[in-house]
Design goal:
alpha/beta, FAD/NAD(P)-binding domain, 2 domains, six-stranded mixed β-sheet, three-stranded parallel β-sheet, 6 helices, elongated
């Protein structure tokens, strides 16, 4: 009977990959996992968690304005992007540590490196060949940018969580919930925000009443470009050292 270095090798340490490791290890399997970016996957690092933190920050702008009608004097309330970014990173680092701790507690061998399939039952990890009985691919996904002139200058949704500076202006392409969330967030944080999409209403596939309401409401703070499709991107010079899109 062929001997392997591990019974199960998981590629990708998101919630699915980490869960699979924990269950397999609890059943007595020799388990290893490889992750080249960050533990916790999309949700923890470039999805649900940072998006909610950004959303909470953005809503304070409305809260400060509304509070005046209830007798509050808020003074000179100012937003600091670097403070939000630092606190977001601290929270994500904490969650990364929890996922890593789960793996360590269950005696899962962790490789913080890229893993590629080199052959049947064989992986190449950090320059070393490893033999495994089973391989589980739990690599998740990555944002895709359409092919058009100038797309090398375009930011994807992941990039927005790591901006060094708050953008003065930005154009968001798309009518899905991710585009709508970012348009709402950054317009409230102070960016001059435009949203372009091919249709006449946002959130295709959602209930019509919701689509009508969101399209109407978001238009109060965001420039909506209905029935439009970007064909080319031309970067403009700015005084700020950031990827400003206009």
């Amino acid at each position: 009977m062929q001997e392997f270095d591990y019974d199960l090798f998981v590629i990708g340490a998101g919630s699915g990959g980490v869960r699979a490791c924990r269950v397999a290890a609890s059943l007595g399997a020799r388990v290893a996992i490889a992750e080249e970016r960050y533990f916790g996957g999309t949700c923890v690092n470039v999805g649900c968690v940072p998006k909610k933190l950004f959303s909470y920050a953005a809503h304070f702008r409305d809260d400060f304005e509304d509070s005046r009608g209830f007798g509050w004097t808020t003074g000179d309330a100012r937003f600091d992007w670097h403070t939000l970014l630092a606190n977001k990173n601290n929270e994500i680092n904490r969650l990364n540590g929890i996922y890593k701790s789960i793996l360590d507690t269950n005696d899962v061998a962790v490789f913080e490196a890229r893993a590629t399939i080199a052959g049947p039952h064989t992986l190449l990890v950090a320059g070393k060949l490893i033999t495994v009985r089973y391989i589980l691919l739990a690599v998740g996904g990555w944002p895709w940018v359409p092919d058009f002139p100038g797309n090398e200058h375009v930011l994807n949704s992941n990039d927005l969580f790591a901006l060094e500076q708050l953008l003065q202006s930005m154009l968001i392409m798309g009518d899905g919930y991710i585009a709508v969330e970012f348009a709402s967030i950054f317009s409230r944080l102070g960016s001059n925000t435009s949203l372009t999409f091919r249709g006449d209403k946002l959130l295709r596939g959602f209930d019509e009443a919701i689509r009508d309401f969101i399209t109407s409401e978001i238009g109060h703070g965001t420039n909506l470009l209905l029935g439009a499709l970007a064909e080319e991107f031309v970067p403009m010079r700015t005084k700020r050292k950031s990827h400003t899109q206009t």
